[in-house]
Design a protein that fits this description.
The structure holds 2 protein chains of 2 kinds. By secondary structure, chain A is α+β, with helices and mostly antiparallel strands. Helix content of chain A is 38%, strand content 27%. Chain B is mostly helical. Chain B contains 6 helices and no strands. Chain B has helices at 7-25, 41-53, 55-72, 79-98, 103-128, 133-163. The chains are: A alpha+beta, B mainly alpha.
């Protein structure tokens, strides 16, 4: 084993490890930096992930369609040809209707916030190692997405873009402690900040903290973003499930049930621009 | 006795394993999650390669598996790349020079590799996150560690069957 440590192989190994540590240090120093190998591998993998996601969605739709087909064929045995035509038309209609519903939901968002510029995206990979539910979407710099762009669905706020590649991006959700969103109670106007914790993330919840002791936040209240930073104002974050005392200080916190169903998330929108959009450095006052 | 394998054949088999495990780990459906804990399948593959093929293959495939994991996960600091590279190298060295290749050694290697990985993950989490550490250990690290160690053993056994035909001696 001594000879191994004196060998040329060991020197090569030590050099590779030194390069890796240097790249890591750069990643730590420049938040959001995507290392070259991550960019290359992510760009290579994202078409495969796209294909896998499309295939699984097609199989789900095919199974439902086959069940509908069987019901219609049993009811209309004599009119098989006409039924086949009608079924084909129905399938096309359902696809168009689903797309139309999806677009109508986002048109409502555009109507409410006509300064938003939106980039549609689809989830192509879920990071099962991350306990806070982060995932990868199929749009990146080439689609106008930038670091810290907010990500939403028609239901509410999902999170923000934490890494941007050329054709993919990674989304950190509101369940994560890395994220901190200025927020307020829509009914009482009590102000706080939303960030995740592991114990709440396990129950698919997030935390509204820094509430004063005399706040009027109660169960069922809607919590929205307060704006002024990287998130626009008025995005629905979630509803209050409970209000509790903090362990280590006198303030209160509320556990929130997110507006977005993270278990069934599939299509999202990235807000690539909104009026008053700030950056992390703006908030830090640098 | 040192077992030799055909280099091209094991490299192709290992690449196929890596592709399949990556697609399972990062698919849009949480196949393997129990709550928020999940096994790190790339660690299982690194243990398998280190166990059967030694330190150099463990180093190379730990590096490749780690890079793929970092590329596909939300990790921002090449954590998996460094962790799996070192686990592959040191695991391979330990198995080659200090243990016989049997089920007990495989179990110990898988458990130790999981402990090292999740300890490093906990340290990184402590540095970059203000989350409750005890809750993180109890709800995520410990269950995921056990889950990963079990999957490490399973993946190694399956990998062993896959490369069996590539043995030279």
């Amino acid at each position: 084993m001594r000879f191994f440590f004196r060998s040329r192989q060991f020197k090569i190994i030590a050099a590779v490890l030194a390069v890796l540590i240097a790249v890591s240090a750069v990643c730590v120093a420049v938040k959001g930096f995507v290392s070259p190998q991550t960019n290359i591998l992510g760009s290579l993998f994202s078409p495969i992930q796209n294909l896998a996601a499309n295939i699984s969605e097609s199989f789900n739709g095919l199974r439902e369609r086959m069940s509908d087909n069987n019901k219609l064929m049993l009811e209309n045995e004599k009119l098989k040809e006409e039924l086949a035509d009608l079924t084909e038309q129905l399938l096309e209609y359902e696809d168009l209707e689903k797309e139309n519903e999806h677009l109508k939901d986002y048109l409502e968002i555009k109507d409410k916030h006509n300064d938003f510029q939106l980039a549609p995206a689809m989830m192509i990979a879920l990071d099962s190692i991350d306990p806070y539910g982060s995932f990868t979407i199929n749009c990146g710099k080439l689609d106008g997405v930038a670091l810290h762009d907010p990500v939403i669905t028609d239901e509410g706020l999902v999170g923000y873009i934490s890494e941007v590649g050329l054709s993919f991006s990674k989304v950190t959700t509101i369940l994560s402690p890395e994220i901190s969103i200025g927020a307020y109670d829509k009914r009482t106007r009590d102000v706080g900040a939303v960030s995740g914790t592991i114990s709440l993330a396990a129950n698919n919840q997030t935390k509204l903290y820094n509430l004063t002791r005399n706040c009027s936040v109660t169960v069922g209240d809607y919590i929205v973003s307060s704006g002024g930073g990287i998130f626009p104002e008025g995005l629905l974050i979630g509803t209050v499930e409970s209000v509790n005392q903090e362990k280590h200080n006198a303030s209160l916190y509320a556990s929130l049930s997110p507006a977005v169903d993270f278990e069934n998330i599939n299509e999202v929108m990235v807000i690539t621009y909104f009026s008053g959009q700030g950056t992390i450095s703006d908030i830090a006052g640098e | 006795m040192t077992v030799m394998y055909k280099k091209t054949a094991v490299s192709v088999i290992t690449a196929i394993f890596l592709l399949i495990l990556s697609l399972i780990q990062f698919s849009s459906v949480k196949f393997l999650n129990i709550g928020i804990s999940a096994p790190v399948l790339s660690l299982g593959l690194t243990v398998a390669v280190a166990y059967y093929l030694g330190e150099m293959y463990g180093f190379v495939w730990g590096l490749i598996s780690g890079m793929c994991t970092d590329a596909l996960s939300s990790s921002q600091i090449c954590f998996s790349t460094i962790a799996l590279t070192l686990i592959g190298l040191i695991g391979g060295l330990i198995i080659t020079h200090y243990f016989n290749r049997n089920f007990a050694a495989l179990s110990v290697l898988s458990i130790i590799a999981s402990i090292v990985y999740f300890l490093a993950d906990l340290i990184v989490h402590m540095i970059f996150s203000g989350d409750d550490i005890l809750a993180y250990i109890g709800m995520y690290s410990l269950p995921s560690l056990i889950y990963t160690a079990v999957f490490g053993i399973i993946i190694t056994v399956v990998y062993g069957f896959a490369i069996r035909k590539s043995r030279i001696n």
